[in-house]
Automatic annotation (TrEMBL):
Hydrolase as UniProt keyword: yes
Family: Belongs to the thioesterase PaaI family.
Name of the protein in its database record: Hotdog fold thioesterase
Gene source species: Pararoseomonas baculiformis
Family annotation (Gene3D superfamilies): Hotdog Thioesterase
Keywords associated with the record: Hydrolase
Residues in Thioesterase domain copies: 56-132
CDD domains: PaaI_thioesterase (cd03443)
One Pfam short name: 4HBT
SUPFAM superfamilies, sorted: Thioesterase/thiol ester dehydrase-isomerase (SSF54637)
InterPro entries, per database record: HotDog_dom_sf, PAAI_dom, Thioestr_dom
């Protein structure tokens, strides 16, 4: 596997967080923490905004995390003059995340083609246990 960066656009976690202000994931407290050579990382505290009535992370919120990281990664991985749109997402949930914990999410590419991209996000509990794996497919379109 190549260790060359895959990004066609430059950004910092701070810049990505600044764009998140009045958005769904901004309201949820999702914060980008790292942009690696072929991955994005983010964290989010699990509080009253994120839980089911049983006080564990709602699966729909896991999907929001995955869609956010995958869409952002896809946007950064296409050249100027192109945009991306999500066309399919799936998620498998493995472990409940109780209210009060912080989750860490890491997104990596499966496929970065000219017309489609597929990104996988792993969401982990504070102890490192895998809570959710999700895949997002994006279409790459000219602007």
């Amino acid at each position: 596997m190549s260790t060359a960066p895959i990004w066609k656009k430059t950004a910092t976690p701070e810049e990505l967080n600044a764009r998140s202000g009045d958005t769904a994931h901004g309201h949820l407290g999702l914060r980008f923490t790292e942009i690696g050579p072929d991955y994005l990382r983010a964290t989010m505290p699990v509080d009253h905004r994120h839980v089911q009535p049983w006080r564990v992370l709602h699966g729909g919120i896991s999907t929001v995390i995955s869609e956010t990281l995958g869409s952002t990664a896809s946007f950064l991985a296409v050249p100027e003059g192109f945009r991306v749109v999500g066309i399919e997402i799936n998620a498998n949930h493995f472990a409940a995340v109780p209210e009060g914990e912080t989750v860490t999410a890491e997104c990596r590419p499966f496929h970065t083609g000219r017309t489609t991209q597929v990104w996988q996000t792993e969401i982990r509990r504070a102890n490192g246990r895998l809570a959710c794996v999700s895949r997002l497919t994006c279409a790459v379109l000219p602007e």
